[in-house]
Write a structure and sequence with these properties.
α1 packs across α2 (about 15-20) and α1 packs across α3 (about 30-45). α5 (about 75-80) links the parallel β1 (about 60-65) and β2 (about 85-95). This protein has 9 helices and 7 strands; from the N terminus they run ααααβαβαββαβαββα. With about 240 residues, it is an alpha/beta fold. This is LacI family DNA-binding transcriptional regulator.
């Protein structure tokens, strides 16, 4: 499906300009209107049916997307949402490969808005400007790293320690292979750091008696998302 982003890229104008032309909102020069319309036609965008559809306005339906393992984390949040006069549908994901198809299906319903909790959909699918989309618990960072090189990961962590002025670190890993553990490697390289391993998430409960000691640590690292949620529940 041709998107506003496609038309803007090919025609060399902004998303807002394309949106205004397609929705007959004015405030656009005749030359740009002609350029956008010709580009849309060239790309196979049906000006009449698709623009008419947009002018009808969004439906009353609102969608909230999140991964299934985050249900508990947002339970109270959803309880508050359910008290509002909104036509809400919750969509639960099990893997990242589902995001594109799920959102494409949602977009076909022309929703009032979309809320993504715990992930950003931007690198998976293009979303039209006319549909508001909100992200919760996501952030942009140029420090994101995907690597099998322990030294590179160490450099990123060390820069974080320096930037945030951290002095005491606590690492918790979900593994029983200590000699091959990334956190064990980092602990050996970073001063004033402690590493503990658990073989299953519920084993984290055994740390409860020592939670009071966590206050002396500036930052706690975990290598498993569910492990993180379990730890947050313990603090609550």
């Amino acid at each position: 499906m041709v998107t506003i982003k496609d038309i803007a890229r090919v025609s060399g104008v902004s998303h807002g300009t394309v949106s205004n032309v397609l929705n007959k909102k004015g405030n656009v020069s005749a030359a740009k209107i002609k350029l956008v319309e010709e580009t849309a036609k060239k790309l196979g965008y049906n000006m009449n049916s698709q623009a008419q559809f947009l002018r009808k306005g969004a439906s009353s339906k609102c969608f909230f997307l999140l991964f299934n393992n985050a249900r508990k984390k947002y339970a109270e949040y959803f309880a508050e949402i359910d008290q509002l006069s909104l036509d809400v549908e919750y969509v639960y994901l099990h893997k990242f490969s589902e995001i594109k198809n799920k959102i494409s299906a949602i977009l076909s319903e022309n929703p009032q808005f979309i809320v993504c909790l715990g992930f950003s959909p931007k690198r998976f699918v293009d979303i039209e400007d006319n549909i508001p989309i909100f992200e919760v618990d996501t952030y942009q960072s140029n420090k994101t790293l995907s690597s099998f090189d322990s030294d590179k990961i160490f450099e990123i962590v060390l820069e974080l320690v320096r930037t945030e002025k951290l002095s005491n670190l606590y690492f918790i890993s979900l593994t029983n292979e200590k000699e091959h553990s990334l956190f064990e490697y980092l602990t050996q390289k970073i001063k004033n750091s402690t590493h503990i391993q658990v073989q299953e998430r519920l084993q984290l409960l055994s740390l409860y008696p020592t939670l009071k000691n966590f206050a002396k640590y500036d930052c706690i690292f975990v290598d498993d998302e569910d492990l993180m949620h379990t730890l947050l529940d313990l603090f609550d």
